[in-house]
C-alpha cells in the first residue's frame, strides 16, 4: 500500500532520457493506478502487472527499462520476481526498484543481494521517486553506453579474427610454397650425402638451405639466413631459391654452361659476388643475408667454401676432432663492390661438415645466456655419430629444444646443412 502518495506537482515531460518503458508491479490495483497515472504524466510508457508471475511474462516478451515492484505480494513476491528476472538472459538491463515498508539493514541487504538496484520506503514521496528514477537513468545510460562499446569491441574483435584467419590461411599457403623450395631433406650423391634441417620460428621464415648437382661427382650446398623475420624475409628466400635452383640450372647463378653441352659449378667467391651485385642493384630492398656456400669434388674430397657473414662452419672429422673454419666475411647485399675470398680444404672419408644459422648458436637458454659455439659443440657431442645425416640433425635440434628457454621459445629460425663425405 502507498498511502498519502502525491505526484501531481511534477510537470509532464520533465523526465526524459534512457528510461522509456516502466513496469509497475503491485497486487493493489489502486496503487498501480496511482503510480501509473503519474508516470504517464512524466512521459513514460507504463505497463501494469498484478503479480510477480504476470510481471515475468511481460518481461519475457519485452524487457522494460525500469521496474517498480512491491515487495510483499501473494504468490511470487517482489524479491522472488527480482531473482527470477536476473536469471533471465536479456540484452537489455532493467533498473529494479523495490517498494517496501521494510527498513532493516539486513532486509535491504537481502534485496540488493537478490538483484535489486534501489529501494523506496513507503509512503513514497514524488521528489524521492524522481531522484531515484534520475539515478537509475544515469546508471542505465552508462550501462548501455558500455554495452554499445562492448558490442563495438566484440564486432571489431570478430572482424580482426576474420582478418587473422585470412592472414593465417595465406601464411599456411606461403609456408607450403616455402617448403617447396626444399623438396628433399636428404639426398645421396654416390656414397656421400647431404641432409637439411629447416625450422622457422613462425609460419614462415628467413632461412634457406639447399643442394644441387650439375653432374656426377660435382656438388654444391649452402646455408642462408636473410635479415629480419616474417613475410619480407620469406619473400627474399623465395627469390634466392630461384637464384640457386636445384631443378632449373639455366636460372642458377652458381652454374655456367660450357661448350653448350653441360653445366659446371662456378667458384664460390664468384657466386657471392654475383648475388651481392644483384641485391645492391635492386633499389628499395633493405634486406641482406648471410651465407655459407660450398662446392666439393666427390672424387678427391676437395672442398671450396665462401663464408659471407654466416656462422663459422663446423668440421667434424671422422677421428672425433672438431674445427670451426672460415674467415667470416661480409653479408651479401650490405656493401657494394665487395670482394669475397674462398677457402679450400680436403675432406677424408667419414668427415662431416655442418653449416648452420645463428638461430642455433644464439638460442636463449634457461639461464638467459646464448648457446654460443661451445654450446654447439656440446650438443654435437651428445649426438650419436653413427646415425644418418638426417637423424643426426633431428637429434641436434631435439637436444637444442631441451635446453633452450621455455619462456621465450624459438626466437629465430633454425636451419642447418650437413654434408657427409664418403668417396665411391
UniProtKB/TrEMBL annotation:
PANTHER family per UniProt: STAGE II SPORULATION PROTEIN E, STAGE II SPORULATION PROTEIN E-RELATED
Keywords: Hydrolase, Phosphoprotein
4-aspartylphosphate carried by residues: 70
Gene3D superfamilies registered for this protein in UniProt: 3.40.50.2300, PPM-type phosphatase domain (3.60.40.10)
Ranges for domain Response regulatory: 21-137
PROSITE patterns, per database record: RESPONSE_REGULATORY
UniProt name for this protein: Serine phosphatase RsbU, regulator of sigma subunit
Any GO MF annotation of the entry: phosphatase activity
A biological process term (GO) from this entry: phosphorelay signal transduction system
Lineage: Bacteria, Pseudomonadati, Pseudomonadota, Alphaproteobacteria, Rhodobacterales
A Pfam family annotated for this UniProt entry: Response_reg
Amino acid at each position: 500500500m502507498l498511502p498519502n502518495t502525491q505526484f501531481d506537482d511534477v510537470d509532464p515531460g520533465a523526465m526524459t532520457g534512457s528510461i522509456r518503458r516502466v513496469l509497475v508491479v503491485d497486487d493493489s490495483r489502486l496503487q498501480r493506478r496511482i503510480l501509473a497515472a503519474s508516470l504517464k504524466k512524466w512521459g513514460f510508457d507504463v505497463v501494469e502487472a498484478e503479480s510477480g508471475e504476470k510481471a515475468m511474462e511481460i518481461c519475457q516478451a519485452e524487457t522494460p527499462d525500469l521496474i517498480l515492484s512491491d515487495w510483499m505480494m501473494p504468490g511470487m513476491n517482489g524479491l522472488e520476481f527480482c531473482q527470477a528476472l536476473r536469471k533471465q538472459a536479456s540484452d537489455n538491463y532493467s533498473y529494479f526498484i523495490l517498494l517496501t515498508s521494510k527498513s532493516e539493514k539486513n532486509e535491504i541487504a537481502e534485496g540488493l543481494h537478490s538483484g535489486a538496484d534501489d529501494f523506496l520506503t513507503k509512503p513514497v514521496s514524488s521528489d524521492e521517486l524522481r531522484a531515484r528514477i534520475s539515478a537509475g537513468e544515469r546508471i542505465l545510460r552508462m550501462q548501455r553506453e558500455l554495452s554499445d562499446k562492448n558490442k563495438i569491441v566484440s564486432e571489431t574483435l570478430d572482424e580482426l579474427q576474420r582478418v587473422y584467419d585470412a592472414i593465417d590461411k595465406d601464411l599456411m599457403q606461403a609456408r607450403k610454397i616455402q617448403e617447396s623450395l626444399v623438396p628433399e631433406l636428404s639426398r645421396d650423391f654416390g656414397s656421400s650425402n647431404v641432409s637439411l634441417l629447416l625450422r622457422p620460428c613462425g609460419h614462415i621464415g628467413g632461412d634457406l638451405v639447399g643442394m644441387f648437382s650439375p653432374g656426377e661427382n660435382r656438388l654444391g650446398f649452402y646455408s642462408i639466413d636473410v635479415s629480419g623475420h616474417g613475410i619480407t624475409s620469406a619473400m627474399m628466400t623465395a627469390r634466392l631459391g630461384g637464384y640457386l635452383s636445384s631443378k632449373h640450372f639455366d636460372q642458377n647463378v652458381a652454374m655456367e654452361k660450357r661448350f653448350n653441352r653441360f653445366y659446371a659449378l662456378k667458384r664460390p667467391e664468384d657466386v657471392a659476388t654475383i648475388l651481392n651485385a644483384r641485391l645492391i642493384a635492386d633499389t628499395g630492398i633493405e634486406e641482406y643475408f648471410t651465407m655459407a656456400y660450398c662446392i666439393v669434388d666427390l672424387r678427391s674430397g676437395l672442398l671450396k667454401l665462401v663464408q659471407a657473414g654466416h656462422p663459422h662452419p663446423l668440421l667434424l672429422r671422422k677421428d672425433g676432432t672438431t674445427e670451426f673454419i672460415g674467415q667470416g666475411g661480409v653479408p651479401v647485399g650490405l656493401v657494394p663492390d665487395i670482394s669475397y675470398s674462398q677457402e679450400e680444404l680436403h675432406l677424408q672419408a667419414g668427415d662431416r661438415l655442418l653449416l648452420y644459422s645463428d638461430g642455433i648458436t644464439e638460442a636463449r637458454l634457461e639461464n638467459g645466456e646464448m648457446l654460443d659455439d661451445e654450446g654447439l659443440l656440446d650438443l654435437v657431442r651428445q649426438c650419436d655419430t653413427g646415425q644418418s645425416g638426417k637423424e643426426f640433425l633431428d637429434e641436434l635440434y631435439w637436444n637444442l629444444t631441451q635446453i633452450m628457454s621455455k619462456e621465450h621459445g624459438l626466437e629465430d629460425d633454425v636451419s642447418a646443412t650437413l654434408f657427409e663425405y664418403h668417396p665411391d
